[in-house]
Design brief:
By secondary structure, the chain is α/β, with parallel strands linked by helices. It has helices spanning 16-27, 55-69, 92-120, 131-135, 141-161, 179-182, 186-193, 204-215; strands spanning 7-11, 31-36, 46-49, 74-77, 123-128, 166-173, 226-229. Helix 1 links the parallel strand 1 (7-11) and strand 2 (31-36). It binds NADPH dihydro-nicotinamide-adenine-dinucleotide phosphate (NDP). The site of NADPH dihydro-nicotinamide-adenine-dinucleotide phosphate has 28 residues, from helix 1 and helix 6.
């Protein structure tokens, strides 16, 4: 009997790290569904339009994915935003938006897809945190809270789902060249580089390879871990 094609769901795969994660999984033979507001050009994956900031939108999108895919082997929570600012001046919306997109969406996807994986008795979840969730960063209290939240959430979920043969791990990227980091000035980028032991900005492939590893059977005895892909920033 031919083995079934593996199914993956990725949030926020329209560009940046998420897009490279999808390309990597496609190259490994996965069929991929991804949730984002915009559709990526030239990606052989199933796009479901979804605003991760909106609970109803996420829940509806997840039902669509489950009815189309029937089973999910790999879930990658990648969608994320920044709304930086010092806390004295941080508006409520900057806090609420970041927590909704970066953390609440992870709860919603893991609750629905975790339930599916538990009944399947197999699955791997990889949640994207950040070096900022480990060491903190002035001007990013909202972002750091969401990314540190992902770590505690994922370790707890790993404990809940281990008995069902579902693994949950975290990848914590450092400074990766994408639209999120493009906006920073050259001066700031040079400053950041001076704090990276490997002295360079990382690329999306380096993150995607780690995600693909943790999602694969090569990592079959790894759960509840945080893998920093950060050129040594957080050690
Ligand atoms: P990008 O800004 O390049 O891409 C973000 C992705 O998230 C897009 O696909 C976007 O899709 C999606 N997204 C954002 N908001 C929403 C929303 N409301 N609803 C649905 N999808 C949304 O970011 P990166 O690729 O750089 O970052 C990806 C992840 O990696 C994030 O979680 C980020 O925090 C994390 N990270 C990034 C680092 C870096 O240096 N770049 C470092 C550490 C962590 P669309 O706009 O189409 O909706």
């Amino acid at each position: 009997m031919m083995s079934e094609k593996k199914h993956a769901l990725v949030t926020g795969g329209s560009r940046g790290i998420g897009r490279t994660i999808i390309e990597t999984l496609l190259a490994e033979g996965f069929e991929v569904w991804y949730l984002s507001r915009s559709k990526a050009e030239g990606l052989e994956a199933n796009h479901i339009s979804c605003d991760m900031a909106n609970r109803g939108s996420v829940e509806a999108a997840l039902e669509t994915v489950v009815s189309e895919a029937k089973y999910i082997d790999v879930l990658v929570n990648n969608a994320g935003i920044t709304r930086d600012g010092l806390i004295m001046r941080m508006k409520d919306e900057a806090w609420d938006d970041v927590i909704a997109v970066n953390l609440t969406s992870v709860f919603l996807t893991c609750r629905r897809i975790g339930r599916l994986m538990a009944t399947q008795r197999r699955g791997a979840i990889v949640n994207i945190s950040s070096v900022v969730g480990i060491v903190g960063n002035g001007g990013q209290t909202n972002y750091a809270a969401s990314k540190a939240g992902i770590i505690g959430f994922s370790k707890s979920l790993a404990k809940e789902l281990a008995g069902r043969n579902v693994r949950v791990n975290v990848v914590a990227p450092g400074f990766i060249g994408t639209a999120m980091t493009e906006v920073l000035s050259e001066k700031l980028k040079d400053q950041i580089k001076s704090q990276i032991p490997l002295s360079r900005i990382g690329n999306t492939e380096e993150v995607a390879q780690s995600v693909a590893f943790l999602a694969s059977d090569k990592a079959s005895y790894i759960t509840g871990q945080v893998l920093a892909v950060d050129g040594g920033m957080a050690m």
